[in-house]
Amino acid sequence: MPNLRARWLRNHMTPLDIKLWCQLKHFNARGFHFRRQAPIGNCVVNFVEKSARLVIEVDGSQHGFDPGIRRDAARDRMLTDHGFRVLRFWNHEIDQSMDGVIDAIAAELATRTPPAALRAAPSLSAAKRDEEKEIST
Questions:
Q1: Residue 84, class by beta-carbon neighbours within 10 Å (0-12 exposed, 13-18 middle, 19+ buried)?
Q2: Does residue 114 have a pLDDT over 60?
């Protein structure tokens, strides 16, 4: 069920989700890959960078009332239990302070293992083979 919901949400993103999504794509040049409206566990998050274990949620006014606050706290606990860090931004922050939002995301990503570091370094034997090929040619 989360996959069907995620697909529907990707096709019906809010204007502010789209605005942030356009900015998050710039992190690709740094080796990060954000996904939008992605299922994790039994919920769908606005944005996730899985290798950095970072979830970004964009919250409208409904998240400021008791039911929304409780629901968000439960989701945050579940995501934290799955090893994710959750950053939440209000709609007005996306709309009026995008630079600050991007700076906060960049700062959080800087504390995470960079994607390039997740790739295994070539083994010594592979490096030695390459060196031997150069010598023999």
A1: buried
A2: no
